[in-house]
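Appendix B. Chain record.
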Amino acid sequence: MHTQPEILFLLSAATVLRLRDGTEIPSGFWAEEFVVPWEILQRTGWSLGIATPSGQLPQVDPQSLYPENLGDDLQKVQRLRQQLTHIEALQQPLNLRDLLQTDLSTLRGVFIPGGNGPLMDLPHSVEVAQLLRHCRNTQVALATLCHGSAALLATDLRDSPAPYTGQQITCFSAREEAATALAGNWPYTLEVELEKAGFRVRVGEPWHRCVVSDERVISGQNPASAPALTQAFIQRIISSQHKGLKQ
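Structure tokens predicted for this chain:
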């Protein structure tokens, strides 16, 4: 039996990225963008949990463990692989649909890592939109990282605005996408789609740390932003707790 987590990691359950030309490549969540925040948040003592929109096992994006995508740091590759095998919750994800039917009063924060998988399933999930609406309405801290910001596009009613529309956010930038091997073949450009949906998108220099904090959501641009984003997320949770105590 799962206990209700205080911090929920929302991961994509997509296993392929469908490119603009119709081809599909293996995909999933980005290892560093999940492992680094998980390790930092474990030290807080808060209970952590993982959910996917369908309850299916999340898959790590194989490209996120390629040495060339990690500065050719083989020790880093090995460490990430080891950490992934030690996180038991990856093998027992919560079903987001079921979780939404339970008492979420213990939930303090939701963290959404990136990877290419989130582009496929998170923006199209009614359950994701319902979770985000709950976070907005109850002032639960929310953090999105890199392509995890695609979750912010989710809506639970046809033609209704996404729960965080209008907030200032960041994401994996168009310039960064253009510098990858998938340049010109991404299914869509996240930065552009977020702007179309009414978000105020601010990006920094490619591959450099960039964290954007607005009233209701905190976001990071890329893997390099993971540590700073997580620390800002922790401070947002602590600040929210203090406000609650004063009320």
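Further analysis of this model is presented in Appendix C.
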